[in-house]
Design a protein that fits this description.
With 296 residues, this protein is α+β, with helices and mostly antiparallel strands. Helices cover 23% and strands 18% of the residues. A hairpin with a 4-residue loop joins strand 10 and strand 11.
Length: 296
């Protein structure tokens, strides 16, 4: 590494954090039609809500059906419905709402403008980024554990590291006949993709292992929802080599480690390729320095 680059890193250390992503994923919030605000998190090239959805309206303002304690109405709904766990709204801000798949697939749009329900491929992209199905659940779930107050996981919360800040919590589910199960022990999230005429793909994380399960479930069940940003769920934040939603001296160090074949993790190649030549080299380091200094 050249002495000039080392000098620049030292000088920039005092200004690390100067180029925050401001309005970009990881620092900005997104607001739904009900006025609920959600924090966001950048994981690889995908921008996710880091909280479960809790809107009671579609993004065009149309109310979502709320069957409440009417289990027959819940079971027979094929247009879109939501529930609060145990029909108790006090769980709203802790675990979000539980939606059937017909709400997920409703043409009025469940997620806020510029956001959407992740399809099966987008969930798989997240799973692969987090190391694969056998460990991704642990890396994506919150480390909060009983007996602390909700929201939290039941003990032992095996494998939990919340490495990427996704902060998954176990909102449980509502069965097709209207009963509620597994708050505290298991979280379930819909995808927008059908697995058959009556089933759709979901993801599941449990308290007692680190797996991130993928399987099909009946569309009349009620599960949690996470939204992902549009544009295929991907954004490119030039200079953000370490994928944390900020541009600062840590990204320069990450780039230099990559150039020196030290295989830094995480590493977002598209973000690091500042000059767009499909190579990561000293020109990209200089470009990132210019971004931090406000020169680019």
């Amino acid at each position: 590494m050249s002495k000039a680059i080392l000098t620049l890193i030292v000088l920039l250390a005092a200004f690390s954090g100067i180029a925050q992503s401001g309005g970009i994923c990881g620092t900005a919030t997104v607001t739904d039609i009900d006025g609920n605000d959600y924090n966001t998190v950048l994981i690889g090239s995908q921008c996710w809500m880091k909280e479960n959805l809790k809107t009671t309206k579609y993004r065009n303002g149309t109310s979502i059906t709320y069957p409440g304690s009417n289990n027959t109405a819940w079971e027979n709904n094929i247009t879109g419905a939501y529930a609060w766990y145990d029909n108790d709204i006090s769980w709203k801000n802790l675990y979000g709402a539980l939606y059937n798949w017909y709400a997920v697939n409703n043409v009025n749009g469940l997620c806020p403008t510029d956001w959407h329900i992740p399809n099966d491929a987008e969930w798989t992209m997240l799973t692969n980024y987090a190391g694969g199905e056998s460990v991704a659940g642990g890396k994506l779930k919150s480390t909060r554990i009983a007996p602390i107050a909700h929201p939290r996981w039941d003990s032992p919360n095996s494998g939990a590291t919340d490495q990427y800040g996704f902060s998954a919590f176990p909102g449980g589910y509502r069965s097709y006949v209207g009963s509620f199960y597994n708050m505290g022990s298991t979280g379930y999230w819909w995808s927008a993709s059908e697995s058959s005429a009556t089933y759709a793909w979901i993801r599941r994380i449990s308290y007692d292992h680190a797996y991130f399960y993928r399987y099909g479930s009946g569309k009349t069940y009620g599960f949690s929802v996470r939204c992902v940003r549009d544009e295929g769920g991907s954004i490119i934040l030039l200079g953000d080599a370490n994928c944390d939603g900020n541009i600062n001296v840590l990204d320069i160090i990450t780039m230099i480690n990559y150039i020196m074949s030290l295989n830094p993790e995480p590493f977002c190649f598209q973000n690091a390729d500042v000059n767009g030549d499909t190579n990561i080299n000293v020109l990209d380091v200089i470009g990132t320095i210019n971004i931090i200094m406000g020169l680019q």
